[in-house]
C-alpha cells in the first residue's frame, strides 16, 4: 500500500464491495477499510441469504414476474407507508439490472431453499449464502486492484464545510490518516453498540441479542452526525425478531430463528401468556414478537409445545428442552410449575374443534373465551413429551442513518457534501422508516453501493 | 467394529446446524439428503460422509467457521467420519489398521512385491517366450494376479454389504445404480452446483482443477484396466500373445491411459500440497498422498516399461511395474482406492432416497 488511494470505502459488506467494484471499474484507485478481521469480514451481509428483485419474466433463479407496482405495494404494506417513494422506486427498478451484474461479478444463485418456496418468485437466493457472495466480491475487487485492509476501524472523518478533508483509522494498534478525494461510508448501523441501543431503547436493550456482526458499532455514523451531516430515521427504531434465547450475544445469524410460535403458547417468566400466538403466519409475525418479548420482564419469553407439533417447523440450531410433564418442563426452564400448569390448562379448555387444523394456512382453529385469544392453530397442549424453547429479542439492524439523495450523496446544512456518499444499512433509513421486507436490505446495498461507487469515482476522476 | 462415536457426534452437531441454516443447499448432494432428515442416525451420518467429496465449498461459504463458537468445518467432520467408516467396515478386520499406515503399507508392498516378483522371475525364468514373457511366463503372472485381483474385490464386497446395512439401504435397484454411475461419470458433484468447480487449492477460489485431474485419474485408470483386460481377451479368446504392436488394442488403450493416469495423479498430488489440510481428515493426509503417488507410479512405470521394450532394463522394470500394480490391487480395500466403491454405494443409496422421496 504505497500510494494514497483516490477513494476510501469504509466497511467491508455488500454495499462497500459493490461501491468498490464500480469505482475500480471506473478507473479509480480504491482502498477498503474493514474494521473486522478477515474471518469475520463482510458485516451483516455474510449472514444474508437472498435479495429481492423486480423482474419481467423468469430471471436467473426467479420464476414468473415481479413488477415494480407489486414490489412497491409489498414494501408499503410492511412500512405502514413510512417510505420515501422516489428512492424506494429507484431501488426497485434498479434491482432487475443488479441480478445479472451480480452474476457477472462472481455471485452465484441457487433455487429457493427447501422450506422457502413462497419466495421463489420474489427473492433470489445466493449459493452458499451471503458469505459466498462476499467472498466472490472480494475476489472480483482484488482482481480489479482494490486494496483491502482488515482490522482497520475508521474513527473519524474531518468535515470542512462541504468536504471531507481527511479521515483517521486504527490498524495494528496505530492511528493512520488518509486524505482521499472521495469517501463512501458503508459501515452498517449501530446495533452492536449496546450502550447506544440502551440510550435509545432503555436499559432493557442490554438484554437484546445482536443477530449479526459485532463490528457495526456506528462509530462513523455517530462521528458524522456530530458534525452536522444530515440524519434520517428514528433512533429508537430497530428491526428486532424473536430468536432462540440460547443464541450467542453476536453473530448467531439465521440458525437461531425459531418458527414454532404459531403451534405453541408463549408465556413470560411468570408463566402467563401475553399475545395471540396464532395471529398470522410466522414470516409476517416474527418481527412483532421481537418487540413483544422485549416488553416482558427480563426481556424473555418461553415457547411451550407438545409432541404433536414438534415436526411442523424447521429444526432450529439448539434442541428443545424436553420433559414428560409440564411441571418438569417448568422446572427445567425456571418457570413457576403450578402457574404453567394453570396457564396450559386454561388454554386447553379454551380450545375447541381442531379438525380443521392446517399448519401452513390460517386455519381459524381458535380459542374461545380466552384473553389473549389464539386465533389460529389453537390445539391443546396435552401430548407428552412437552418441549420448550426460550425466546429473546434479536436485533437485526437499526434505522437511524445518514440521509442521502438519489445519487447516494450525503448532505450537511441543506448542501451536498461534495465528496461523501453512503450506501447500505447506514442510509437505509432514507428509504424505509420502519418495518422491513425480506431481501430488501441487500437490494438497497447493491443498488446504492453501485451508485455511490460510480459517483465517487466520477468525482475522484474529475479532481 | 463401530465408527467412533465422538466423530459421529461431532458431525451430527454440525449437520444439525446446517439443517437450521440450509444456505449451502445447492453445492452438492450432501445438503438435500441432510435437509430431508430431522434427526440423524449413525447410519445417516455415515451416508452423508460418503456423499461428501471434500470440495470445501461449504466451508469457505460458512458464516460459522472458527473463530465463531459454532466452529463449523463440515468438510473435515465428514472426512473424519468417512475415513473412520471405511476402517470400521474393513474386512478382514485386522487389515483396518492399514488405512492409518498407508504410507508404510505401500512402501512395504512395493519393496515386497518387487522383491518377490523379481526373485520369481529370476528363479523360474522361462526358457522361451517373447517380450515380457521372456522374463516372466504368462502362467506365472496369471497365477499371481488373479488372486491378487479377486481377493481384494471379495473383501470389498463384504465391506460394501456392511455399508449397505449401516445406511439402511433396501433392495438394490438397477435404476439407482445407473443413476449413481451417471452422476459419478460426469463427476456431477464436483462442479460445485454452479458449474464453477470446487474450492480446494486456493481458499475460496472456484476452479475445475480438482475435477479435471480426478477425471483424468479415473479415466486413465479405467483405460489401463481396459488395456489389461483386452490383452487377456486377446490372449485367451484369440490366441494372440503379447508383445502387442503399438496399434493393438492393449496399447491404444494403455498408452493414453498411462499418460492420463500420470497427469491426473500428478495434478492431484500437487493440488493436495496447496490445499488446507485442516479441512480434511488430518490423519489421512499422508496415506492419501502416498496412494496418489502409488497410482502415479503404476502409470509411470507402465509407460517406462513400454518405452524400454527390448532393453535389458526390462528385467527389473517389469517386476517393478508389476510390484506397483500388485500393491495397488492388494491395498484397494484398505486405502483411498476404496473411496470409489463407497462413493458408488453412497450415490446409489442417495438415488434410492430421491426415488422414494419423489414417490
Ligand atoms: C441474520 C441476518 C440475516 C439477514 N438476512 C438478510 C437477507 O436474507 N436478505 C437481505 O436483504 N437482508 C438480510 N439481512 C439484512 C442485511 O444483512 C443488511 O441489510 C445488509 O447486509 C447491509 O449491508 P451493508 O453493506 O450496508 O452492511 P454490512 O454488511 O453490515 O457491512 C458493514 C461493514 O462495515 C464495517 N464497519 C463498521 N464500522 C466500521 C468502521 N468504523 N470502520 C471500518 N469498517 C466498519 C463492518 O465490519 C462491516 O464489514 C440480514 C441481517 C441479519 C443480521
Ligand atoms: S456449512 Fe455453514 S453456511 Fe453451509 S449450511 Fe452449514 S451452517 Fe449453513
Ligand atoms: S465439502 Fe463439498 S461435497 Fe462436502 S459437504 Fe461441503 S459442499 Fe458438499
From TrEMBL, chain A:
InterPro entries, per the entry: CobZ, FAD-dep_OxRdtase_2_FAD-bd, FAD-oxidoreductase_2, FAD/NAD-bd_sf, Succ_DH/fumarate_Rdtase_cat_sf
GO molecular function: oxidoreductase activity
Keyword Nucleus: no
Keywords: FAD, Flavoprotein, Oxidoreductase
Domain of life: Bacteria
Residues annotated as signal peptide: none
Cofactor or coenzyme needed: FAD
Residue span(s) of domain FAD-dependent oxidoreductase 2 FAD-binding: 6-433
Keyword Oxidoreductase: yes
Pfam families xref list: FAD_binding_2
UniProt cross-references to NCBIfam families, sorted A to Z: CobZ_N-term, PRK08274.1
Protein name, UniProt field: Tricarballylate dehydrogenase
Source organism of this protein record: Pseudoponticoccus marisrubri
From TrEMBL, chain B:
Superkingdom to which the source organism belongs: Bacteria
InterPro entries, sorted: Citrate_utilization_prot_B (IPR012830), NarG-like_sf (IPR036197)
Residues that span the membrane, as ranges: 102-121, 133-158, 218-238, 244-271, 283-307, 313-334
Keyword Transcription: no
Keyword tags: Membrane, Transmembrane, Transmembrane helix
Name of the protein: 4Fe-4S ferredoxin
Organism this protein belongs to: Pseudoponticoccus marisrubri
